[in-house]
Every structure is written in structure tokens, then in C-alpha cells.
Amino acid sequence: MTAVQSAFASPVVLTRAADLPVLPTAEFTRTLARRVGEGARLLTYYGRPGDAEDEVVLTAALIEPGGLQLLRGAASRSHPVFAITKDQPQFQAYEREIHEQYGLAFPGHPWLKPMRFEGKNLGRMDDYNFYQIDGKEVHEVNVGPIHAGVIEPGCFRFSCHGEVVYHLEIHNGYQYRGVEKLLLQRPLGHLTALVERIAGDSSIAYAWGHAQAIEALAGIEVPDSVELIRGVALELERIAIHLASLSGLLNDIGFLQGSSTYGRIRTAAINASMRCCGSRFGRDWVRPGGLRFGLTPALVADLQKTLRQLASDVGECNALSAESRTVQHRFKGAGIVTTAEAREIGLVGMHARACGIDMDMRTLLPGRAYSQFPVIGAVEPTGDCWARMMLRIHEMDESLKWIFAVLERHAELPKSRAPITALAPDSLAIAVTEGWRGPIVHAIETDAAGKLRHYKVQDPSLLNWFGLALAVRNNEISDFPICNKSFDLSYAGNDL
Amino acid sequence: MLHSIRVRRSQGWQFIPDVRKADPKGFRGLPHIAAAPCAEGCEACRDVCSPGAIKLDPFSLDLGLCIFCGECADVCPQDKIKFTNDFKMAATQRADLIRRDGDGAMPPIAADPALKKIFGSSLKLRQVSAGGCNGCELELNAAANVNFDMGRWGIDWVASPRHADALVLSGPITVNMAEALRLAWDGMSSPKLVISAGSCAISGAPYQDSPVTDRSFLDAFPPALYVPGCPPHPLTFVNGMLDLLGIGR
Fold this sequence. Notes:
The complex is a heterodimer.
Chain A: E1 12-16, E2 22-23, H1 25-37, E3 41-49, E4 55-64, E5 67-76, H2 92-102, E6 138-143, E7 155-161, E8 164-171, H3 179-185, H4 191-195, H5 203-218, H6 224-252, H7 256-277, E9 286-287, E10 290-291, H8 297-322, H9 325-331, H10 339-345, H11 349-353, H12 361-364, H13 367-372, H14 385-409, E11 427-434, E12 439-446, E13 452-458, H15 461-471, H16 480-487, H17 491-495
Parallel strand pairs in A: 2-5
Antiparallel strand pairs in A: 1-11, 3-4, 4-5, 6-7, 7-8, 9-10, 11-12, 12-13
Chain B: H1 2-11, E1 31-33, H2 44-48, E2 54-55, E3 60-62, H3 71-75, E4 81-83, E5 98-100, H4 113-119, E6 123-129, H5 135-142, E7 155-157, E8 166-170, H6 175-186, E9 193-197, H7 199-203, H8 216-220, E10 225-227, H9 234-245
Parallel strand pairs in B: 6-7, 6-8, 8-9, 9-10
Antiparallel strand pairs in B: 1-4, 2-3, 3-5
């Protein structure tokens, strides 16, 4: 077990592999189940190939009062692994993924559906039997993989009775690009560009997590100014994408003034990012060891001016939208996930917060940026589309306040970039960033020569797609578009 | 009602009147390549280029592979590569995307009179993402928003392939999406075009070496327009479409 050294809880944990005891399979799953059952938050649970032919090494990261803690176990393809999902459904996606990637057997797991149709399932998206409900008046509706709008592909199969959805099965994998394998094949210096393009609406969140993990392995501590600029970039990303989601949500109910106004305010936010770093998505801004672009006094002044205007425009549009009876009528009570359900299935990020669960990595594991300038996490209790809309509105306000607080204190934030030369051998670094959807996890492990031996990426969508499936139950199928948009999950982030 | 008026007033007029003359401040767009030769034996730009867009002896930079990170310009000891905020980068020929010594602005797109006649006042687009990361998808959506407003020239996104004249592709084309892409294309009536938007669609870069992509669709149906960028700026897309159709020329 590795203790966190800093005064605040760090979003990064680094350990030598040798210092991490490898528990036998049964003891590992028993310990993991017990600690999560006792209240530890499960951050990630994944496998990697072991040294022996049949061996799979299982690793879990838990958030406990002392910070991030790691747990490791050995498993074998020739021996079954206890399916914790049977008792704690929040393990379902992790065990499905480990089963698909490494062929471990989880007897008793209720639903080992492929997570993304990789390996032996590649190219077999249609070779799959969806869950079916019998009954002469039950009918099925298929949506996708190509959707009506300009969005990523994914398939939804509804079992309906009349207009009411009994069950939704989500079928992902169309976006599978083999990211995790590519990350092991490329030179270290080329990785960030790929990481930023895994789920391209969260480029900053991905790049920051990657940078933190690599910096931990390289033994580099970047200056505070670098962490603060990364924070500004991340909050700009959160504001911009929340605006895009709000625009999409209002478009889906035909509330066009709100939709087009949020849409054009997003332009102001992403153009501000572009003036800082050349990209409207903040790409190629963050790099391990530092940053490629600093915030000059002129850029700080520009951001302050732009965001003051943005805050005022957003405020007007928030009032227009939230007070509209049309908007309230369509969103209130639609697509509810209860707090108990959200806990049971392990929802994370903004989707958990919209169900009344106070869970934000920026407050749980704040690191330097968010301990110098704390964020007050927003929470909405009702778990419906309305909650997910209002949460975005409150989070934008918080992000704006955070950026203003940083820029008020720092009239200039210089860039710096330390070269990454060598990584610690036989070590494991896990870093987490609270992207606009939720926690994005990078787990990077090196071999004896300090080369990458394993790279695990986890998008919050891996867990949260199941939340959408629950949200639409007993709703009218015509409300599916708003339920889906209110989640706005990543297909590419799930499929990798 | 009062709110609506206040929002309307704060909105003002947001559309870009002349999309050909916009000035996107800070945008890292078309790289200009100086004519002066590289320093003897220098390979710095090639080494930092993650998608392998740069070739040396002689120097060339392929905009179809480029992800516009700008790292090459950072490391060049001679300032040979200079990224400008020029967004006019679309081309009808794949070879035109390869930039060489002394290259500045892109060659103008020769509008096709036949395309102009058929689609010059109405072109409906069906977007298919086949491994796109949601960067291209967001920017393609933005091309129709109140700022860029490509609908003013009759260019719009439509839901059904049956209603579409062109298929706008994003992403490197994953194996898992290849069949659905082909079905969407087969569902469109002729005449019809393919447009490749973004470096993934054009060349597969950053996923060009992924073994789980299948790009055979593009061998069978070569694009009529290549729109570089990672993701392409909406101005790059809108200008490319206008030039292809000869609108406003």
C-alpha cells in the first residue's frame, strides 16, 4: 500500500511494482469487495497480461480517506474469478472489460456482454443477440449505429410496450480504434497527441491526466504556474462543452432561441482557448513536463474580458431557459436515475452529482491547482434531465469563478516544459482528472527498462452508459433523445 | 418574453458576413514553408511529428496527415515552417495537400461546373462518424451554427442518407463501423459525393497504423473534397464547400 506524501490528497499515485503485494485471486476479490462494500470509492479495476502464459494481473484503485490506494491480485485464465458484480453491480463494466480483454472467467456474472467488440469479437457487431422481452404487445425499436444528428455512432435497442420503454440495451464498440495497444507502440514523446484524440471533446482532461502520470514516473514536479494554467484550460473545456450540451438539449425540445444562444456562446469560449494555444479544443497545449503555451499578461486580460462578457450572456440565457415552462415541462421528471440506483451501479462524475451524490475529483483529490483554489462542487438531487441541465449551469458558474480567482491572483502565468528523459523502471502510476463528464483515469506501468509495459485508459462513459439505460426505463421512447443528450456520454471514450 | 428580448439583444448579430475573409485569431492553420533549404542533417521536425506528416530530402509536409500540433515549428532551428491562421486548406486532389519548399497559400479549388449546376443552390449532407473522437463532429455541427451558418447557401445536415447528396466522413473508419458506413452510402441516391473531413478521414492519422481500421471504402469511393484539420475549423469546411460548388465566385 502506498501512502500519499503530500498535505493534500493527490490525484496521482506512484508505486514501485515490487512494493505492491500481489494477492492470490480469492483474497484479492474478497478484499476488494469488502473495502468497496465498506465505503471506499472504486476508481478503476483493470487487468494486464502477467509474466506467465495464462496469468492476468488485476489492479484496483480505491479512493479512501487517506487518498488513492492500490490493490493488486494475480489471476489465471484457467481458474475462475469471483464476480463481485453479483453482490455489487458497480463492478459490472470492469468485469465485462477484463473478461473481453483477457478472457478471465467470472462465473455467475449476470451479463458478460462485450464492452467494445475487440479481440475475437472484432467486426462482429451484428453477430449478437440482444436481450429480448417476450409478450405479444412488446415490440423492439433499433436506433443507430448512425444517429439522426452529427454525432458519434452507437446502437440502442429498445423493448417497448406501446410508447413506454421497458428496457434499453446499449451496444457500443463501433468506435474501437485500439488506442491502448497503439499507446504501447509509439515513442513516449508522441503519446500526448494520441491521448488528446481519444475522446476529443475532453482533450485537456485527457492530456492533463496523462501528463501527471508520466511526470510521476519521470520524477518531475512541474511549477505551480503550470498546474494553474492546466486548471484554467480544463475549466474552459468544461464551460465550452457544457454549453454545447445545453445547446443540444434545448435543440432536442425545439427551444431554439436557447439552443442557438448557448451554441454561439460556446464559440466565444472555444475561441478564447484558441487564442491561448492555437486550438479550439485546447489540443497540443498540455505536455508531460509542462506546457507549450503560457498565459501572458495580454492573454490573462483577454480571458478576463471575454469571460466577463460570457458570464453575463450565459446568465441571460440561463434565466431564459430555466424559467421557460416548455423547458421545465419537458425536463422535469424525465429520465430519472435515483440516488440509490446511481450508487448501486457506480455512476461517476457529473451524472452522479445530478443524482445527489457529492463526488468530484477536484474536491476529493484536489492536487495543487484545486487545493490552492478550491472548487465548491455542485450537486442536484433529482436525477432527471432537469437536474443534469441545472447541474451544467451551476458548474459553468463555478468554473468561471475558479478561473476569475486564479487570474485575479496571477496577472501572468509563464509556461515551462521540462524534458522527459527516463521513466522509473518497474513502476505504476495512476492519475485521475475530473473532466467535464467525470473522472478520467490513466494507469501506466513500466518494465525493468523503464519502457511502457501497460497503459490503461478509462473514460467515465465506461460506467455511465449503464445509467442512461436505467434512466429511460418507464419513460416514453420519444423522450429518449433528451435523456441521451442530458447524459452526453462518449462513444469514443468507451470504445477506445 | 422579457428574458427572450434581453437574450435577443445580448445576442446581437453573430454571423460572419464574409466567411472567406474571416480572421480567426490564434488559429494554428495552414503552414507556410520557407524556400531556404534545411540545415545539413537536421531531422528535428520529422522526429517530433507524431503522425509522420513530414518527409525530408526533399522536405514535404502532408496536410492530410498533419494534426496541426505545431511541434515541428517549435523545434525547427531555421523557422522553415510557419503556421498561419489561414483556414483555406481544403483541396479536391489528395496530392495538393502535400506542401513543399516555398509553398504559401493553397492553390485555389477549381469549381466543378457540373456540381455547381446540380448542387449549387442546395446540397444536403449526411455525416457519418466512423471512429471520430467527437472533435470533427462538434466542428462540423458548428459549421451550421449561427456564426458560420452554412445553411444560408443551402448547405445543411440531414438525418437520412435518403435525403443526402454528400456523405461527410470523419474518423479513420474502424472495422466495427465499416459495414454501417457502407450501408449509409448505399442508401444514398446518385449523384452523390464523399467528403473527407479531418486528418483521420483523409489518411487515418493518428490512427493510421491501427490494425482495427478498414479503409477499403475510400479505395472504392475516393473523396471529392479533402478538408484538413484536427479537427477542421468550421471555416475550413465551409470555404471548401463553397469553393467546390463555385458559390460566390
